[in-house]
Task: structure prediction
Amino acid sequence: MPATPDNTATQPLPSPALHPEEGLKQELALLERVVQGQQSSGVLLWRCEQSLVVPRSLGRKPAFDQACAAMGAQGWPVVVRDTGGDLTPQAPGLINIALAFRQRRTPGAIRESYLRLCQPLIDSLAPLGIAAGCASVEGAFCNGDYNLVVAGRKLAGTAQRWRKMASHTGAGEDEFAVLVHAVILCDEPLAPLWQAGNAFYRACDIDQRIDPTLHVSLAELLPDNNGDLIHQSLVRFSACLQG
Result:
């Protein structure tokens, strides 16, 4: 199915990396416009300054403030997001994509919503010789059932958020606004991301660890690429979500 209807609104391709709070704010603003019926759907692509983005649940850990101070001193500020999931290291060489649309709450709707974002991305990678699919990768960062995976290694993480449509839109009781998000490992040295994530876990007295061997970036998958891989990928992903 098409990723988005004809009246999709797409943000301009990003140039500077955003502070994570600004990027998250723009995602929620996109979702709110769909909730209010101002647009049927929309796409946002953005890059993020170096940081660790964590779910609000981690803020209840006794050592959380201590861990935030320790990571901030190392150049990895910790930013709390409202949604669930787990710790996600961010850096300018990663690409964040948010797709918002209206969706009925029916059996299989969560899977369908993930595939509204994942399938176009998978299809766009195929001409590059990259065979991606959706799967869980235990031990990868912020693991879930709809990671984008290449040969068993995680290329992207995904998450989604649902909100009831505003009453003035005339939407039915089973109709919601959905925001599906992906963070794609594009052109960034990966080792520092996992080192920072695991340092946070240690400082926060959390036993969990990220396994660096379970990840792969587009730069690794396309070693012969001679251009600006970030820009090329932004253009490719933006185009595939317009179809």
About this structure: The CA atoms of residues 14 and 46 lie 6 Å apart.
